[in-house]
Amino acid sequence: EGEDEHKARIVFTNGDTDFFEGDRYRERLVRREESDGTVVNFEGTQCMERMVSKTLYPDGTRLFYEGIPNMEHLVRTEERNGTKDYFQGHKGHERKTKTEFPNGDIHSFDGLKGSEHLVRVDFPSGTKHFYEGSKGEEHKVRATFPCGEYRYYVGEQGVERHTRTVFPTGLVHYFEGDK
Fold first, then answer.
1. CB 3.0 to 4.6 Å from 99: which of 67, 107, 111, 128, for a disulfide?
2. What is the structure's pLDDT at 38?
């Protein structure tokens, strides 16, 4: 009698609830429902559970993690609209390296966590835009096109001016004047 008894959940005083699966004395944490509506999923054997995903409430953004227990690091987020952000780095030092948008645009970033700055935008057409500058001050310096054309720009963010175009034939067009 009572041999099927096993821990199913723990309700904490702050309103969080942990859910467990497994046989008696081998229960493992599989999910946490936090009081704010956030849901955290875990994988692994008893005492070796690791966080693998988190769904934020109320916006539904999903965060995905990799790593050993208690050292899980963020590797990807997915928003409800289909936008995906990718991260690299150890726990607490994850930096955004790429954003994929539902329309196919891909933004690439460089820099340390919190200082990530845009360095390139790839469009589904094959066109690429290249940027320089610190976070929030990125400005376009070059664009390449699938036909082999290169365009060059100068100027601060939002007021970049097209200065020349180099064609695959070697022909160069130069531009002057305000944007």
1. 107
2. 97
